[in-house]
Design brief:
The complex is a heterodimer of chains A (about 1100) and B (about 425). With about 1100 residues, chain A is an alpha/beta fold. Chain A contains 35 helices and 46 strands. Chain B has about 425 residues and is mostly helical. Chain B has 16 helices and 3 strands. In chain B, helix 1 crosses helix 5 and helix 3 crosses helix 5. The longest helix of chain B is centred in the first third of the chain and has 42 residues. The radius of gyration of chain B is 33 Å and the shape is extended. Classes of the chains: A alpha/beta (about 1100), B mainly alpha (about 425). At the A-B interface, strand 1 and helix 33 of A face helix 11, strand 3, helix 13 and helix 16 of B. Strand 1 of chain A pairs antiparallel with strand 3 of chain B.
């Protein structure tokens, strides 16, 4: 059949010469350029000739530009009836509380014209002490999340239909009444007494109701251990501030463990040194992944996951040997020497030490309790009488519930503040069991993984739209109040507070606000003796936001129903001496058989590669998975944004032949990790300090139904690691002792903000050890010297320019590197305060992140100049080796870097349009509307803190994930700070809007400016108070006194003669040997650089 | 003699009392100046000086009505207490009042006395005939001769004359040619003739062209200066957009002497002075429903419409509507300007930037609000109260030290001396 031939025409048949010639041409006809240009007639006769064209062009350009000159008409629309408390242009602050079942923080909320724009810590809180974390700072953005549901929805088939509350209430009311089998309310930890009362009311109406508490990251094992040791299933309060030796075993207490903001604050108090305090706590950490806490430890010992329990047992034995006590069966460990050393430190500080473990294994926690009892720490650094209620999840009850659901015994389930379809261990098969429940109701604010499988979603208000009360710790209460009218406030079809919904279903028509007041009247008010009537008490509590009751010996009149079991209803005060109750408690110790626990721990068999799951500082348990600010916040340790990944020891990686990401390489090997039949595919990142034979993966990623972010960035961020969680001995284990890795031979790129990990032998971060510091407070902080014609002189003394005249204020900032834990709270705070754009993964990979403030993390390197001298290494090889961090167990330092506001700023001299210049009060100002974007300044900045705005992130359709692209998201913008557009340079302004505001208040009140008038955003958000800001021209300001008194004060790159305004305080480590991250040879190192700049006198 | 003596005594008394009175009066205005200020800030909102009732009764002849000055002082200070004390007159007038008067316990007796003195000494200004009293739409009261129209008229007139004369000349020339026997010249177009003329008078044409081009360029240059600027005093450009309600500042701030801050209450507390919300308007306009003209009444009705007020039923029973005012004084988004800084701390008068609003109907922009204008002012204005404000104490001392070596006329504590013209003070 193929012999048939079709001709294109007669030409082909005839094979005319023209055809043959043209057959090879793509275009059959020539473009008639010649003909057109050659035809004079055509040109003459055509209506448009060249001159006309130019005339029209000229006219239209002029006309268009003139038309564009018309000044726009702006509208000013005042309120019809202005709320009394609002003055346009003036911020109102309200005390409130953030709690999402995971993080707790007492906060104050800044509102402008009725919309919340910033969250700060509440300094009146005795729990969080005015600190915040990155997650708390970012929570403001989740209010303006357009992925939130705007009202109740019901499912019919696979589609969601909007409904009304009246319909929903009727329908669900009927179904609940008829529910066969039990009704279950599944929640994350609830620390709200009123919410618990609402649930109790609901249970009274429907007696077959049971409330199950489930935490995605559970501390159930700890509570169970305490039940055995003390007879109370509670989690104690910890007082890190009273501890002089802290030993952590896999507990990331500075970033995630229990109440990190509280502990970070307490911890920092023991770490600060100064003129009147030359002692600090010693912190030893045993862990597998390099956590934020481990990075801050004085001594860190990498141990395998399977060995963490054994470390506790061996530590118990080592302590028992010193203080006297029976030992437990144990097995030898490689780190026994370190354990013995830790034990000695602990025993030397009996009653002033603290051992904490991050394990959720009851046996390990029992042994840890044993150690603390041996050390006499109860009643001193651990307070079991004033328990913390921050985690109440019960793993066994949750597993039981899933089994019940699977067997069809549950008639209806209500989920509140929890997302088990996403977070539950794979082995439980939660989703399958969930589908077997007849009536599935969710209070989620969006159709998340669990809610999307429900039949009804009754969206809850955001916390900033809600009333609520909280009881994070015994005797500590705080209130949450609405700071905005609910955004989706339609009368019958908007969002509704979950508690109110439950109240309606249990037949209570009053509002939740008065319900809370009723509960407080009954329970909290009688516990205090300060106020004589309830209204006064309530108003003051609401104003203060957080209160502590029971101080001063008042007797609690009513038992609190929100604690699981209450033992001592007497005094809620921290005690330094032992009470009869405590003696009774301690007597019970003997009953607990620790040897059984130790035997069980010793029986744990490790694998070749063990997996330890962890929570990242930014994403945490994944609650705020749709928050772009958190995804853009670099992980403090890996400095990687927008991803989770497998962390692994570089040595293990070298053996396996994975890409090592050395020399600023972004490319990483993609692996598959399999454990218990579950597989994820993730890139692998070399993590110096990771225990060999272990890998780490962060939970909280891979949320495909978190909201619109995945759609806007084009991909779901990371992979879900929760399925790897296992149920062991009735509690969740966040590890897996036998995993297999396989290389997919795929390569992917990771968006790290810092791909250079060491200081290359320079002293950007200055460091010393405590014993040296005690001898000489200036140790580690030697002056930078320069060789000049006049001899060797201090770099600070040489000045090319004349000093500026500073008549008024002279702003200064000092950052204590000893207090900074690198948590990133300041970075998010800065983003919120200064309208910093989110740029996304692709742009971060091109080093175009916009953060005005970054936290540099440096590892120590095995190669130093000393080592090179010893081994005779050449300079080139030495510097190449210096780029590589120590793989085994590097020392880590953190250093927040923002614009240093140099007094002789290199950026200012190169700006061709004087867009950046110096103010009389010492700030390096940036006039965006003057900037033409040459980027000379960024080139000339030695700190690389100037960020160039490459795209119009506010409108460019490639960056829809930037909050400002969303009508709702835009509401978070700070109206006092301009939103920058494409083509300008941005940088830290030292929160000049706050400086101007603070000055103005003082001027108006006709008084001198004081320190508390101005706090920069980073300073205010810092949980460890590491940042000072103030007027250096004011002799009495804290910063002036500090700089004068503290000999740790130094300026980075002072030898360049740039005279920075920001200074740092040397980091002091309570370690034995001086392993400095930026190790220099001993003694004063003279910079052998030709001093080209000298003072005029020298010349 | 006796009578004379008596008369002279009478005269003497009269002269003496006159002298005394004049002496008293001569102090009185100084005294009443404070009274005027206090009156405008506190009383003018509700009380007019005439007969008409605003929210409270008009004050004309008030001194004759009240039992005594003492009584009036007590009444102003705390009318509530006076009513409760059972004072007969107080109870009586309270029975007539629609709403109770505010108490002024914050004012001292002396201050209230100064107000009473001001009321007593008040002389109503001579009423000027004012066409614009209604404030309707802020239309200019009379059409002044526009120079441009006049110019165009003259030019058109000249062109017509030239055209006519050309025709006449053509006819006359033809007539003469006919006489001389030269054949009739063909009538050529004006344009052709003009071209002919320019060719033969190249110098004159060149000069003309130069003038015209130069004029256009300079006009264009000045026009460019106004781009993006709503007002420019040099070119007499004033931005005066039409407002949804033809609110007359003249009637409120001028005739009725209401203090600016009564409506623009944010001026000392916030960065924005604030546009009064409708409920502020209603404070007075619940009682005042009639304007000074038909048009004025119609404008007041617009407030009722926005507030949802039914004047017949005297109730808020209709839906509220926001009034969309057109912003007159616009600053770019990248400029931070604070009213409280300038008014509260810098003690600037509103009129410095906003012009004399007591003579304007709807507000118009009279100052350019350009950066040059800001900076000029910052270079020349001394910071008032700097000496007495402890905030400036150390700065003032250091500046004074620095000024020691300068000639006296340069020792000025102007805003720019303390960093007031730096970028970062307004742009962030």
């Amino acid at each position: 059949m193929a012999t048939k031939k079709y001709w294109k025409g007669l030409e082909e048949l005839n094979k005319s010469p023209e055809f043959v010639q043209n057959a090879n041409n793509e275009f059959a006809e020539q473009i008639p350029v010649e003909k057109f240009l050659g035809d004079n007639n055509l040109a003459d006769n055509s209506g448009t000739n060249r001159r006309d064209f130019l005339k029209f062009l000229g006219f239209s350009v002029t006309a268009a530009s003139l038309a564009a000159c018309e000044t726009p008409v702006n509208k000013a629309i005042p309120y019809v009836v202005k709320p009394e408390e609002i003055t346009p242009g003036v911020a109102n602050w309200y005390a409130s509380t953030f709690h999402d079942g995971y993080d707790y923080a007492a906060v104050i909320v800044k509102t402008r014209e009725g919309r919340p724009i910033k969250v700060e810590g509440n300094e009146l809180s005795k729990v969080t002490m005015g600190g915040t974390s990155a997650r708390v700072q970012a929570s403001i953005l989740s209010l303006y999340d357009s992925s939130r549901l705007t009202g109740p929805v019901t499912k019919s088939g696979e589609t969601w239909n909007p409904s009304t509350w009246s319909n929903i209430d009727k329908e669900i009311g009927g179904k609940l009444a008829k529910a066969t089998g039990g009704i279950r309310i599944l929640t994350s930890t609830i620390i709200s007494p009123s919410t618990k009362a609402v649930i109790a009311d609901f249970a009274a109406k429907y007696p077959n109701t049971k409330h199950v508490t489930y935490d995605a990251v559970s501390y159930s094992g700890m509570a169970k251990a305490n039940a055995q040791t003390f007879g109370q299933e509670v989690i104690p309060s910890y007082h890190f501030n009273h501890a002089e030796v802290i030993v952590g075993i896999g507990a990331d207490f500075l970033a995630n463990w229990l109440s990190p903001i509280e502990y970070a604050n307490q911890y920092s108090k023991t770490r600060k040194v100064g003129k009147n305090k030359n002692k600090m706590s010693k912190h030893i950490q045993f862990e597998s992944n390099l956590s934020l806490t481990g990075a801050n430890a004085d001594e860190r010992v990498p141990v395998k996951v399977s060995e963490q329990g054994k470390v506790a047992v061996n530590l118990y034995n080592a302590v028992a040997k010193i203080v006297g006590g029976s030992t437990l069966p144990s097995s030898a460990l490689a780190c026994d020497a370190a354990i013995a050393k830790a034990a000695k430190e602990l025993a030397d500080n009996k009653g002033k030490s603290l051992v904490v473990s991050g394990s959720n294994d009851m046996n390990v926690q029992l042994v840890v309790n044993g150690i603390n009892q041996l050390l006499d720490n109860y009643g001193k650094t651990i307070d079991i009488e004033n328990p913390s209620y921050i985690r109440q999840g019960d793993d066994a009850a949750f597993a039981e519930l899933v089994a019940e659901m699977a067997s069809g015994k549950v008639g209806a389930i209500i989920t509140y503040n929890t997302n088990p379809v996403y977070t539950a261990p794979a082995s439980l098969k939660f989703a399958e069991a969930y589908n077997k429940v007849g009536v599935r109701i969710s209070f989620a604010d969006r159709a998340d993984e669990t809610a999307s499988m429900a039949q009804y979603i009754c969206p809850d208000h955001h916390y900033l739209e809600s009333w609520n009360d909280y009881n994070p710790k015994k005797a500590h209460y705080s209130l949450a109040q609405p700071t905005i009218t609910p955004l989706f406030a339609a009368q019958n079809s908007g969002t509704r507070q979950a508690q109110e919904t439950l109240m309606v279903w249990s037949g209570n028509t009053s509002d939740y606000h008065s319900y809370i007041q009723k509960i407080w009247m009954e329970r909290v008010y009688p516990m205090q003796g300060k106020y004589m009537n309830f209204t006064e008490f309530w108003n003051n509590s609401l104003h203060d936001g957080a209160i502590e009751v029971g101080k001063g010996g008042e007797v609690a009149a009513m038992p609190m129903t929100d604690s699981t079991k209450v033992v001592a209803p007497v005094v809620a005060e921290m005690k330094s001496d032992i009470t009869p109750e405590l003696i009774a408690v301690i007597k019970e110790i003997g009953k607990v058989d620790l040897s059984a626990a130790a035997t069980a721990i010793n029986a744990v068999k490790g694998g070749a590669i063990e997996l330890a799951l962890y929570e990242k500082v930014a994403i945490g348990n994944g609650n705020q998975g749709n928050n772009p600010w958190l995804h853009e916040l670099p992980d403090p340790i890996s400095k990687i944004t927008w991803d989770n990944y497998i962390t692994m020891s570089p040595e293990d990686m070298k053996e396996a032949g994975y890409k090592l990401m050395e020399r600023q390489d972004r490319e990483s090997s993609v692996l598959t990790l399999t454990s218990n039949g579950i597989t994820v595919k993730l890139p692998v990142v070399p993590q110096p300090g990771q225990a060999r034979g272990t890998v780490g993966i962060a939970v909280g990623y891979g949320r495909d139904k978190a909201g619109k972010l995945a759609e806007r960035t084009g991909t779901v961020v990371g992979q879900n690691a929760y399925p790897f969680v296992q149920i062991m001995n009735g509690t969740m284990a966040y590890d897996s002792l036998s995993v297999t890795l396989a290389n997919t031979n795929e390569i992917t790129e990771l968006a790290g903000t810092q791909i250079h990990h060491t200081m290359m032998g320079r002293e950007i971060v200055k460091e010393t050890i405590l014993s040296e510091y005690q001898k000489n407070p200036k140790s580690g902080n030697h002056d930078e010297m320069l060789v000049t014609h006049a001899g060797i002189v201090k770099a600070a003394d040489i000045d090319l320019w004349n000093e500026h005249e500073r008549l008024g204020h002279k702003w200064g900032m000092t950052i204590d590197l000893n207090s900074c834990i690198g948590c990133g709270s300041c970075v998010v705070s800065c983003t919120a305060e200064n309208n910093v754009a989110v740029v996304g993964k692709d742009q971060v990979m091109k080093t175009r992140e916009m953060h005005w403030l970054r936290i540099d993390r440096y590892y120590s390197s095995d190669m130093t100049k000393d080592v090179a001298k010893e081994t005779g290494e050449g300079a080139i090889q030495m510097y190449l080796d210096m780029e590589n961090p120590s793989t085994q167990n590097p020392k880590v330092v953190f250093q927040p870097i923002m614009c240093q506001h140099c007094n002789h700023a290199p950026c200012e001299t190169v700006c061709p349009v004087i867009a950046t210049n110096h103010s009389s009060d010492g700030l390096n100002a940036m006039a965006y509307n003057r900037c033409v974007g040459t980027r000379y300044c960024a080139n000339n900045c030695p700190f690389k803190v100037r960020r160039f705005n490459w795209f119009n992130y506010n409108e460019n359709p490639d960056y829809t994930f930037n909050p400002t692209q969303d009508d709702l998201g835009r509401m978070v913008l700070n109206p006092d700070v301009v939103v920058r557009s494409r083509g300008v340079m941005e940088k830290c302004s030292m929160c000049i809007q706050r400086i101007q505001g603070g000055k103005l208040e003082a001027k108006k009140e006709e008084r001198k400016l004081v320190d508390s008038d101005i706090k920069t955003a980073c300073q205010q958000s810092c949980p460890t108070n590491a940042i000072w800001f103030g007027d250096l021209n004011d002799e009495t300001s804290a910063i002036t006194v500090l700089r004068k008194e503290d000999e740790r004060n130094y300026f980075i790159l002072e030898e360049l003669g740039i005279k920075p305004t920001v200074s740092y305080l040397t980091k002091v480590r309570n370690a034995d040997e001086s392993v400095s991250v930026g190790k220099m040879p001993e003694g004063h190192e003279v910079k052998h650089e030709e001093a080209k700049s000298e003072k005029k006198e020298h010349a | 003699m006796d009578t004379i003596c008596k008369q002279s005594k009478k005269h003497f008394l009269a002269i003496f009392s006159l002298l005394f009175l004049s002496f008293f009066l001569s102090i009185n205005p100084v005294f009443a100046q404070d009274g005027e200020k206090i009156f405008k800030e506190n009383c003018a909102v509700c009380h007019s000086m005439g007969k008409e009732t605003v929210t409270g009764p008009g004050l004309e002849g008030v001194m004759k009505r009240v039992p005594s000055e003492e009584w009036l002082l007590k009444w102003i200070k705390n009318n509530d207490a006076l009513i409760k004390s059972g004072d007969a007159y107080a109870v009586k007038i309270n029975a007539f009042a629609e709403s109770q008067m505010t108490t002024f316990t914050n004012l001292s007796d002396d201050e209230i006395k100064s107000v009473i003195a001001y009321i007593k000494a008040y002389v109503p200004p001579v009423k000027k005939v004012d066409n614009n009293a209604g404030g309707a739409a802020g239309a200019p009261s009379e059409e002044e001769g526009n120079p441009l129209t006049l110019l165009i008229g003259i030019i058109a007139f000249l062109i017509i004359i030239v055209a006519v004369l050309r025709g006449v000349r053509h006819s006359l020339k033809n007539l003469q040619n006919e006489k001389l026997g030269i054949p009739e010249i063909e009538k050529i177009g004006a344009w052709t003739e003009f071209k002919e003329w320019t060719r033969s008078n190249k110098t004159t044409t060149g000069v003309f062209v130069l003038f015209i081009v130069g004029g256009l360029v300079s006009a264009g240059w000045y026009a460019l200066k106004d781009i993006g600027i709503y007002a420019n005093p040099e070119t007499k450009l004033e931005y005066n957009p039409e407002q949804p309600i033809a609110f007359s500042h003249k009637i409120h701030a001028g005739d009725n002497a209401i203090n600016c801050q009564y409506c623009h209450s944010g001026v000392e507390r916030s960065k924005t002075a604030g546009i009064p919300t409708v409920n502020v308007c209603m404070n007075c306009h619940r009682g005042i429903s009639k304007g000074q003209s038909e048009a004025g009444t119609a404008e007041i009705a617009k407030i009722y419409d926005a507030a949802g007020w039914d004047p017949q039923a005297a109730k808020y029973n209709k839906p509220q509507k926001a009034i969309q005012w057109v912003k007159v004084h616009n600053l770019q988004d990248f400029v931070f300007f604070s009213h409280q800084q300038h008014v509260k701390v810098g003690k600037q008068e509103c009129a410095t930037c906003h012009g004399d609003l007591t003579t304007m109907t709807t507000a118009k922009q009279v100052q350019p609000l350009s950066m040059a204008w800001c900076i000029d002012c910052h270079r020349t204005t001394e910071v008032p109260g700097m000496k007495d404000n402890p905030y400036y104490e150390s700065l003032h001392k250091k500046l004074a030290e620095k000024f020691k070596n300068l000639p006296k006329d340069q020792r000025k504590f102007t805003v720019d001396k303390m960093g007031g013209i730096e970028c970062g003070k307004c742009h962030y």
